[in-house]
Design goal:
529 residues; alpha/beta; Rossmann fold; Domain 2, N(10)-formyltetrahydrofolate synthetase; Formyltetrahydrofolate synthetase, domain 3; 3 domains; twelve-stranded mixed beta sheet; 35% helix
């Protein structure tokens, strides 16, 4: 099946489909209509560095729904070159289920990532220009919060000094990865070009000498930024290897941003499909919580059911062993995520992502544990068998899909401190929260700038429910440490930075990039790890 045949199944008018080469469409905003479908949210337990197949499960579930005669679409985030060339490799699925063409999607795709990077750095350039010419209002050069962006893991650029030798105002600066850029978050949370421009204008960049917030609107940069992003704002439509339509658009990380694909792509998918499968980054403590507390209420994107991906590999990792006792210990992490999802008002469907080397007796034991927890579960063998390996899961998901009134972790009228404390205790399992002196200073600014009622988007490690990556399974009686606060008023949330989280990752000792090459036919190999 080719892309045109796949997309035809959705019934989108051709006038809204803008071909991008022969492998993707950009979809015009006019294709957006009233939602008709049900939203299926896919999350996971805390993963190992290699991930636990959440994207693979989401793609395979959509394929399984399609095989069983349902009109289905999967909506995913665009891969970042940081993980692609870092630890994980490509992010387009695995085994017999993936979105195609994987090499193009993992690399330059339709240029959206480059557009976000350029838009972000245009603001950086104009901000530096404002400082250089001492334009009004004068800025406090020690309180410039807007960094530069690069879609790559590059730890050397976390902290830099700019403006040396008379080329600007000397000051400390730094880079963050493009997926952590506020422009990326705004791309994912905008419903139109005008909405995007308005959100960009509200970005707080720095503090003036008289203590006020300095925004993109003060630079008058929002128009130029929007001009760079016009095409990137249009969702990308491709397909899975099995021919199921797939929207792949926007790519905010879930550990340092809100972690889900664009609102526009999801709403377009819901316009044309009966079931829309979307994944949220990392575990229920990150992407899921942020979707429920930021995206769902603001955009009326209420999931009909939630799928929790688990794997024996990750459970044993949390249990720190390779036997039944390790599964018992690691299952504590599974229960924490089941409890989290239940606390939001959902009964999860647990997808046991089966790897080829998993032992059947261990799979059976995991099922016993899930039965004792009164959890719904099904095996997912999609990586090995394609969509056919997810039919049981698909049927269970459909049977569980219903109208739900979610229970949110906090109320937006709570103070930022109250919101952080509620998420820390209810979702992570912390006993208390500790704010650093720097974080307390920023909280006063949040109050001064009138942003205290925005939702929060806590940035923390994905490997633990706590802010310490080494605390596995289900940590208890720990203190969540908030070291700083990032104001993302354009995106519409406040970002408390927990533990040692970095907005610019580094490469591992042996990065995936070392295994990537181009063969004699010009085909790219080694991207998927």
């Amino acid at each position: 099946m080719n892309l045109a045949e796949s997309v035809k199944k959705l019934g989108i008018d051709d006038k809204y489909l803008l071909p991008y080469g022969n492998y993707a469409y950009k979809v015009d905003f006019g294709a957006l209509g009233s939602a008709r479908g049900k939203l299926i949210l896919v999350t996971s337990i805390n993963p190992t560095p290699a991930g636990e197949g959440k994207t693979t499960t989401a793609i395979g579930l959509a394929d399984a729904l399609a095989i069983s005669g349902r009109k289905a679409v999967v909506t995913l985030r665009e891969p970042s070159l940081g993980p692609v060339f870092g630890v994980k490799g490509g992010a387009t699925g695995g085994g017999k289920v993936h979105v195609v063409p994987s090499d193009k999607i993992n690399l330059h795709f339709t240029g959206d990532m480059h557009a976000v990077t350029t838009a972000h750095n245009l603001i950086s350039a104009m901000l530096g220009n404002h400082l250089y010419y001492k334009k009004q209002p004068l800025l406090d050069s020690t309180k410039i919060w807007w960094k530069r962006a690069l879609d790559m893991n590059e730890r050397d650029l976390r902290n830099i000094v700019v403006g040396l030798q008379g080329n600007g105002v000397p000051r400390e600066d730094g880079f963050e990865i493009t997926a952590a850029s506020e422009i990326m978050a705004i791309l994912a949370l905008s419903e139109s070009i005008k909405d995007f421009e308005e959100k960009v204008s509200k970005i707080v960049l720095a503090q003036t000498m008289d203590g006020n917030a300095f925004t993109v609107a003060d630079l008058n940069a929002q128009g130029a930024v929007t001009a760079l992003m016009v095409d990137a704002l249009k969702p990308n439509l491709v397909m899975t290897a099995a021919g199921t339509p797939a929207f792949v658009h926007a790519g905010p990380f879930a550990n340092i941003a809100h972690g889900t694909n664009s609102v526009l792509a999801t709403k377009m998918a819901l316009t044309y499909a009966d079931y829309v499968v979307t994944e949220t980054g990392f575990g229920s403590d990150l992407g899921f919580e942020k979707f429920m507390d930021i995206v769902a209420p603001q955009f009326n994107l209420i999931p009909a059911t939630v799928v929790l991906v688990v794997s024996l590999r990750a459970i044993k990792h949390h249990g720190q062993g390779d036997d039944m006792a390790a599964i018992d210990r690691g299952f504590e992490n599974v229960m924490a995520h089941i409890d989290n999802i239940r606390n939001f008002g959902y009964e999860p469907v647990v997808a046991i992502n089966v790897f080829a080397d998993d032992k059947q007796e261990e799979i059976d034991y995991l099922k016993e544990l899930l039965s004792h927890a009164h959890a719904n579960f099904a095996e997912s063998r999609v990586a090995m068998e394609g969509g056919a390996g997810g039919l049981e899961l698909a049927d269970m998901v459909v049977s569980q899909a219903k109208d739900v009134k979610p229970i949110y972790a906090y109320d937006n009228n709570d103070t930022v401190e109250e919101k952080v404390e509620k998420v820390a205790k209810r979702v992570y399992g912390a006993s208390e929260v500790e704010f650093s002196a720097e974080a307390k200073k920023k909280l006063k600014l949040v109050e001064k700038f009138g942003l205290n009622r925005l939702p929060i988007c806590i940035a923390k490690t994905q490997y633990s429910l706590s802010d310490n990556a080494n605390l596995l399974a289900r940590p208890r009686n720990f203190i969540l440490s908030i070291k700083d606060i990032k104001i993302s008023s354009g995106a519409g949330f406040i970002v408390p930075l927990a533990g040692n989280i970095m907005t610019m990752p580094g490469l591992p000792k042996v990065p995936q990039a070392e295994h990537v090459y181009v063969d004699e036919n010009g085909d790219i190999q080694g991207l998927l790890g």
